[in-house]
Amino acid sequence: MSDVDMKTTVIVGAGIAGVHAAENLRKEGDQGRIILMDSDQQMPYDRPPLSKKLMTGETDDTSILLRDPSVYDELDIDLKLGVEVTDIDPERKTINTKDGSSYEWDKLILATGSKLRTLSIEGDDLQGIFYLRRMTDALAMKQHMQDVKDAVIIGAGFIGAELASSLKQLGINVTIVERSSYPMEPIVGRDVSEHFLDLHRSNGIDVITGDSVAQFNGDTMLEEAVTAEGRRIPCQAAIIGVGVTANTAVSHPQLQTENGYVVNEYGETSLPDIYAAGDCTSWPYNGTPIHVEHWDHAVNHGKTVAQNVINPQSVPYAYTPYFWSEQYDSRFQYFGHAKEWSRTVLRGSFESNAFTYFYLDDQNIVKAAFLSNQAKNALPVRRMIQQQSSVDPEALADESIALKKVQRAKV
């Protein structure tokens, strides 16, 4: 084996992006050493089931592993768990870890994912208060919920909403407390936000908006949550789900960060031979840097970055953002990325909970779309967003006109 083959790639983070990057390095012919490290002690696992099937008992902790443990040996991937990186030296090409170890690398991929936003609330040291990020969090929460009658969820984002659905399925009374009047409105708009509120309430969830939890009460165990508006909510469990931010803890003065590690279309950071992939990045989408925390993005970004590690600047990352959420008996999908829009178009109806909701710019170009129980529209919607052509809004709303024909309608 040549010296070229024996080059070392170190991947920091064994989540979705890191595991797929490591696998793709081998798939694309990398015969060098691959070191995949993570601060978590658990074998690499899938995170979406933590708030869904793992919580409801439909799956267990071994079933959500990303790969069978034998795969890492078969691919000759040196997996190191419980390892926390403290600093990197881009000149010497080394990284140091908390246990005093040092690793040399030829290429470095940062796939550090995201970290939780936390709140400081009086009484938050009581037993029964949880954040959900890792498998250990989910398992501890699941164990605790066996004796819980009433639970409070702080935050009505997708994680909070999914947990509300899961806990309701377990027969627990759930109250969501959301500080904004319309949850997720900046992402999905007022109409879809109202639909979410109606959906939760129709499924027996008590949703409190425009308020926040100011205090937890109890002796050693949580007994009550008190809101800023003075509401007193009996509960034996509270879950805080107020979002995440990019984890850029592995840092260097010359490593540019802004809503994540700033990377170009090849996954390259501001430092030579250092790449970044997945949730921890800010990457160019249609000429604008964006940051998303999506499973699908982490998979595809990890794979693409691996290709560019082997053959630098060979494969630009061309990807349409996509995420999904399962709540109650519904499946929601979101394609594209729109921080603002000029008009919206509804195809279907909120009443039926089967619709596609489009976000258009001032040129009637579809920037994003939200699908509720309409998986059949996923492929034409994705194509429509990729084509970036003007469409006829009236045709878009008309379910008698196939979406593939709407794509070709110009105005």
Automatic annotation (TrEMBL):
Q: Where is the FAD/NAD(P)-binding domain?
A: 9-302
Q: Where is the Reductase C-terminal domain?
A: 322-406
- Pfam families per record: Pyr_redox_2, Reductase_C
Which UniProt keywords are listed?
FAD, Flavoprotein, Oxidoreductase
Q: Which cofactor does it need?
A: FAD
Name under which the protein is recorded: FAD-dependent oxidoreductase
Q: Which species is the source of this protein? A: Lentibacillus halophilus
